[in-house]
Amino acid sequence: MTQLNPLKSNQFWLLGIATSLITLHFTLVSRSNNNNLFSASLLFGCVVLGLLWMKRDKITWYSSPLSSSLAGLLIAGILFKSKHVVGDDVFLQLFPLMSGLALALLASGFKGLKQYNQEWLLLGFIAVPWRQLVYPVLNLSLLTAKFASGFLWLLGFEVKREGVIVSLPTGSIEVYNGCAGLKLMVQLLGIALIFLVLVPTGLKQKVLLPIFAVFIGFVINGMRVALMAVLVALSEQEAFAYWHLGQGSLLFSLIAVLIFGLVCHKVAGGKYPYFL
């Protein structure tokens, strides 16, 4: 098979294309007002760039006419679709994976794609249409309502539950699927994936860490739901809005991330890799 000259001498062209695609992606995401996708893309993107930097001296820099042509078609398709994006979150989620595939084909060809297994794993996580496919199917409203009512009972509250409705003597809330904590669980699951990619772990840790991530996300969100039930019972509407959709909801996310960070710190034994 005829091969092109090594692309190592043309890495500046590759870097220019990558920079343009990254800039385009973040511009489109910022216009869509999807803050979750923006933050996830920023976090995962930084990790992917860090991984590439660490393996920069080991990358195979050869491509072929076929792989370069396919990469060109992918980039053309991305640019064409980018001109017609109207809140299309699925395309925006697929954007990093498609761009990464195009760049990898330009840099290393088909045979070199296996060099980027860790990067495919991270970009693939972003590409999963959680909101469109997973959230509607996986309904944890009832389970969250049971946890919140059980938690309030343990704290000494006079609580009753009928299905997804958690009731106190002076007020009640209904737990919708959007409040069941799936978003927080996915967020922690992504952090677990990043940790497992960066830190050498055994099979036991690879199995348990994602489970811990989902469990912590569920429990912390269940406590938030219990708090909102108490605030409704106390007729504290402003406080309810703050903890439901305001900055208070972000505080619970921060608590969950910190707790899971402590778990990861324990697993890593206090040692973290550096991008050298």
Give a verbal description of the structure.
There is one protein chain. By secondary structure, the chain is mainly alpha-helical. It has eleven helices and three strands, in the order H-H-H-H-H-H-H-E-E-E-H-H-H-H. The protein is elongated and about 70 Å long. The two termini are 36 Å apart.
DSSP strand content: under 5%
- Give the tally of β-strands: 3
The geometry reads as elongated
Average pLDDT rating:
87
Radius of gyration: 23 Å
Q: Secondary-structure element order, as H and E?
A: HHHHHHHEEEHHHH
| Poorly predicted regions | 1-8
Distance between the termini: 36 Å
Largest sheet: 3 strands, antiparallel
Provide the helix percentage: 55-70%
Keywords:
single chain, about 280 residues, three-stranded antiparallel beta sheet, 11 helices, about 70% helix, disordered N terminus
SSE topology:
Elements: H1 11-32, H2 35-54, H3 65-82, H4 89-108, H5 117-127, H6 130-137, H7 141-154, E1 160-162, E2 165-168, E3 171-174, H8 182-198, H9 203-233, H10 237-244, H11 247-268
Give a short overview.
By secondary structure, this protein is mostly helical. Helix content is 69%, strand content 4%. β1 and β2 form a beta hairpin.
